[in-house]
């Protein structure tokens, strides 16, 4: 094989791999439901520093999150668009708390299979038990130290977005 042919073949292969990676990234979205602006910045920074290249939608309260997920109100134009691959949910939210959001997610056929990771500062046993009883897939306490927070975000992303196989059709509205 001539050198030019090898280079073209290698280039074609790399472009194909990039295309597959881009398609995989484009099909996965994280929904972050967090009302504390500092925690939002910290979480986004941690995901970015962990090379989580997936789009992240940030919503600030429970009602807004449900409107987005169920394509109602200000999010009526979301109807028919793919649902998030992963929901990262704080418990302490305005208007409707995280447990209320979680219960609504699990009660609806369209969203009941989406993985929900509780990411909260609460270490109360009651919150842990209530979260799992309401259908949380994981409960992670927000580390105070940024390096630990970075590691937690990285592990969440690696497991839920790269390792875990979601149920077929679980991300379509």
Q: What features would you highlight for this structure?
A:
five-stranded parallel β-sheet, 173 residues, alpha/beta, globular, Rossmann fold, 47% helix, 12% strand
How would you describe what is shown here?
- The chain has a single domain (29-163), classed as Response regulator (Rossmann fold, 3-Layer(aba) Sandwich), CATH 3.40.50.
- α3 (62-69) packs parallel to α4 (98-107).
- Mean pLDDT is 86; it is low at 18-25.
- The radius of gyration is 18 Å and the shape is globular.
- A five-stranded parallel β-sheet has the order 2-1-3-4-5, with helices on both faces.
- β3, α4 and β4 (116-120) form a beta-alpha-beta unit.
- The protein starts with a helix and ends in a 10-residue tail after the last helix.
- Helix content is 47%, strand content 12%.
- The protein contains six helices and five strands, in the order αβαβαβαβαβα.
